[in-house]
Amino acid sequence: MHQNPELHTLRELRQSGHIHRTVKAEIRANLLARLRAGEDRFPGIVGFDDTVLPHLERALLAGHDLVLLGERGQGKTRLIRTVTGLLDEWTPIVAGCEINDHPYAPSCVRCRRLAAEAGEDLPIAWKHRDERYGEKLATPDTSVGDLIGDVDPIKIAEGRTLGDPETVHYGLVPRSNRGVFSVNELPDLAERIQVSLLNVLEERDIQVRGYNLRLPLDILLIASANPEDYTNRGRIITPLKDRFGAEVRTHYPLDLDTELRLIRQEATLGWSELDADLPDHLVEVIARFTRLVRESTAVDSRSGVSARFSIAAAESAAASAVRRAALTGEEHAVTRVCDLASVVHTLRGKVEFEVSEEGRETDVLTHLLRRATAETFRGTLGGTDLSALLAKFDDGAQVESGELIQAGELLRRIGPVEGLAKIMSKLGMGEGEESPGHAAAALEFALEGLFLMRRLSKDVTEGNAIYRT
Predict the structure, then answer these.
(1) Which tens digit of pLDDT belongs to each residue from 194-253?
(2) In Å, how far are 267, 275, 279, 439 from 433, measured between CA atoms?
(3) Angle ∠(374,376,382) on CA atoms, nearest 5
(4) CB count, 10 Å around CB of 375?
């Protein structure tokens, strides 16, 4: 394809050898090229390689409009937005056109008039693929005018007559012509408003008010929906559902490794901006915690537990470490086990519980967090010799830790521990992570694991934990 943003007229465009392709033809050709080259088709999408993406690729190759169906926080919107990466990087439009008409085939009244007047000197502009995406969250106040268009009172006030098609103010769908348009949470859209999309999907055109106006649209329409929406909050009307060519189901990460990849990818930016370290073993605790919450019978499975739950947990834990560093003067913020306790209270509102669990939400989450910590301890330090650490408690000694106790102070209270380097290595702390903060994070995790394995006791007072035999 000839894509040269330096071309400015229809004549120059024709001479360049540019070929006009529909949006779906563009996506099909570019997707096939990436498949043959073994390139990443949907950057940033984690855990869908063998499940969701093959179905999505088949739908795009077939030229189907589609619905992504899945619980909240499964990455539906993120996936939809990556589809625009399959468009040509640049595409020509008639300069100044509100609906992005192609210079070879202008369709709106304005562009047809300009084409007749200017001929081969018709001015063109270029649009980047990032600008060829439109999105609307379906809300109760969404109107047909928002999606399709309505009469523009300002143009009427300027002296144009009501019968003039150029008095139309185009809605979001025609403004996304020659691009991708997404309707998020489609079942939330009132049924009478859904009707306005029937022509878009089947006849590929729009009708505005009583105008004798037919605008053929070149568009890929993708909608998202939650499964429970079909019964609880609304539904996709049957004629509209029938017009979508494909329905693709999404899902939460299927295994722990995928959950870990997702957290690291999405939350790393958050905690790096905080200038805090979040050790690998705590990322694993958060990933296991998220999976246990999803599987818990105390949680309403129909509402799901969003991936945003684990991302927010990682960011909140890192923020707790930053707060400690600011209050106590620690040189560098490193997240510790004690920072995870606040996550329960911060994220309680992100989970829908069964009615029978009302009043027990905090207890349920606290129990699941302990289980996640114990499972991570068994997987990382379960076979490690911690006798040197346990020996610290032989004579009735106690060690107090808490979210406002400096790393250096915690290390002083514990004292030298033989085999600390091995513990840190088992937790994935390599060279460059030998600061007091990392050593304290490793030892506190070991203490918490020994408590959960019933090798130590723990008293919790005013947010601090006292470990003893």
Answers:
(1) 988 888 888 777 777 666 667 889 999 999 998 764 444 568 888 998 999 999 999 999
(2) 20, 14, 9, 8
(3) 80
(4) 19
Same domain, 379 and 464: yes
**Closest alpha carbon to 179 in 100, 269, 290:** 100
Q: Which of 425, 347, 426, 433 is nearest to 380 (CA)?
A: 426
Does 166 share its domain with 282?
no
CA-derived radius of gyration, the chain = 29
Identity of residue 346? T
295 occurs within a structural domain = yes
Burial class (CB in 10 A: 0-12, 13-18, 19+), 5: middle
Q: What angle do CA 256, 293, 347 make, to 5 degrees?
A: 110
Residues for the chain: how many in total? 469
4 belongs to a structural domain: no
Structural domain containing residue 289: 256-468
* Dihedral sign of CA atoms 424, 425, 430, 434 in order: positive
The neighbouring-strand residues paired with 91 are 127
H/E stretch holding 461: strand 457-461
Pair 92, 7: CB distance under 8 Å? yes
Strands 133-137 and 66-69: unpaired
Average pLDDT over residues 48-68: 96
Cα-flanking dihedrals φ and ψ of residue 462, to 5°? Answer: 50, 40
User: What are the distances in angstroms from CA 389 to CA 399, 400, 426, 462?
Assistant: 11, 14, 15, 25
